[in-house]
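Re: the 221-residue chain
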Amino acid sequence: MKSYCLELSGPWACFTRPEMKVERVSYDVMTPSAARACFEAILWKPAIRWHVRRIEVLKPIRWINLRRNEVASVVSTRNVEAAMKNGKGDLALYIEDDHQQRAGLFLRDVAYRVHADLEFQRERDPDASPAKYHEMFERRAGKGQCVNQPYLGCREFAAAFRLVGDAGAVPHPIAETRDLGFMLHDLDFAKPHDPQPRFFRAKLENGVVEVPAWESGEVRG
């Protein structure tokens, strides 16, 4: 494995707590799954996996309450199947006719430094070498290129990013320590049609959250 560090920032963020069924309420700090998604937005291939190891909080934790219009429904799978079978169909959702207001408790003016390991799975690309994927990621991240724009929890909250080469980079993490309670680590896709959330007990220690390995006993279903 080879370790990389990204600095991520944006005016808004929402790392939604899964226990909140209707209203969007963010965790205090970026979750490992959201951090992984940012790395995958720059480079994702079947032969690699990203493992988030550490999240550094670079700005004070600040909140904002917002009420937004959201689409109330999702496209029917039955309609999708019919359209695939017939070659045509009405799959549109019209927000003017199908929207509702929802309150949200979001983070504002956020910045993080996220450390992750790139694991090369040779069995999925026997003819390649780890260096191939290392070079791909370094080239893309160094030039600010991505497959899709990284985002901070919700797709509408786009993240600015840059590759950090210096482990002692500034700014330093915030000088704050607190117990964050149980936090979403990631989804377990052992059953692809029924992914299950897994959690860990998160603690902010002088502005840093250490993320336990997925296989460790600290990660629970």
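Helices lie at 32-42, 77-86, 130-143.
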